[in-house]
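Pasting as-is:
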Amino acid sequence: MKKDFWLERWERQEIGFHQNGINPYLCQYWQELHLARDSEVFVPLCGKSSDLLWLRQQGHPVLGVELSAIAAQAFFEENGYTPHHAADGKFECYEADRIRILCGDFFDLCKGDLANAGAVYDRASLVALPPDMRERYVRHLVGTLPPATQILLITFDYPQPEMPGPPFAVSPAEVETLYRPHAEIRQLAQLDVLAQNPRFQERGLSRLQENIFHLTLHQPA
């Protein structure tokens, strides 16, 4: 899946993946991280998610990375901000009210960009990637984050042949395979949600689950 796929989706406003409102699992399970209020939260592939506002309201500085400048600009405009805009290495940076969005390629992030991150919120990143990109994504993420960083991860699981992604199916077993070398994994919930998602029923799914995980990256040996 190439960058142009996502850039074109935003240009055409084909953004069915965008979730209006705050994700209820974020509100319900964020406390499991016991994160200090002033700890920075990193949100990969953040789009224009309202979850950034909720995290900021909990006292966290928020750092997002997003490929599309249209998405980043829309986030600030729709929420009444006039962001400061500046070049930041390989990224264009938009910032207001301790929310920063770096516009550019996730894989261009370096350790300096995430040096202050205490946690990651991943609702829309891992599930946005096809299977052949997920291992690279996880390697880059954990290799760029500080040790002991916590991750709240939300995934979809369904019979992949029944629907083309994104969002793609990512099973609990795959989460284990991807993250077990790098992190302690605790599954917080597994929820059957097909009945609450008629648009996925219309696309032919026979099963749909959402899984919520709390990950803690290993300390260096």
